[in-house]
Design a protein that fits this description.
Helix content is about 25%, strand content about 10%. The chain is elongated, with a radius of gyration of 22 Å. The N and C termini lie far apart (about 45 Å). It has helices spanning about 40-45, 80-95, 115-120, 145-150; strands at about 75-80, 100, 125-130, 140. Strands 2-1-3-4 form a four-stranded mixed sheet, with helices on one face. By secondary structure, it is α+β, with helices and mostly antiparallel strands.
């Protein structure tokens, strides 16, 4: 059986759904989105949202905060997000000794010099294996890449 179509005129619809036009909340045709001419216009349009104070149109560290390091050879830097959980669960299942460090992305901690050194993309999770190949430190980023590294 198929799901019944929604008959409410205030429903937002994707243009690909049943061939309908995109609709605004009041049922009128939605205005066509036009991208801004410059990155500065985009950032000014997002002023006031939760991340407007930390997201910048530039790369690189925004503070000189070092990366915390514990005693275990494997250090995980993350937050309680699904991607962060995946890596932590795998570390536990494989019995690999590690230390987890909380990186508060709401406060922009991922833009500290130490974190950017481990992950130039400034995204969580990331990790550093201080006992990497040949005994050299190995910085890792992206949850699936970290998990593949751990499994190999």
């Amino acid at each position: 059986s198929s799901l019944p179509a929604c008959s409410s005129a205030s429903t937002l619809r994707h243009p690909a759904v049943r061939g309908s036009a995109a609709m605004a909340a009041d049922g009128a045709p939605a205005a066509k989105w036009v991208p801004p001419n410059t990155i500065e216009e985009l950032f000014s349009a997002t002023a006031g949202n939760n991340f407007s104070s930390i997201n910048k149109p530039t790369a690189g560290p925004q503070s000189d905060t070092p990366l915390p390091k514990g005693e275990a050879p494997f250090q995980l830097y993350s937050l309680a997000t699904p991607n962060g959980w995946k890596v932590g669960i795998l570390l536990e299942e494989l019995g690999i000794p590690y230390e987890a460090h909380f990186i508060n992305i709401g406060k922009g901690e991922q833009f500290g010099e130490g974190f950017v050194g481990a992950n130039p993309n400034s995204k969580i999770p990331c990790a550093v294996d201080y006992d990497g190949p040949g005994g050299e430190p190995m910085a890792l980023m992206e949850s699936v890449a970290i998990m593949m590294y751990l499994c190999e």
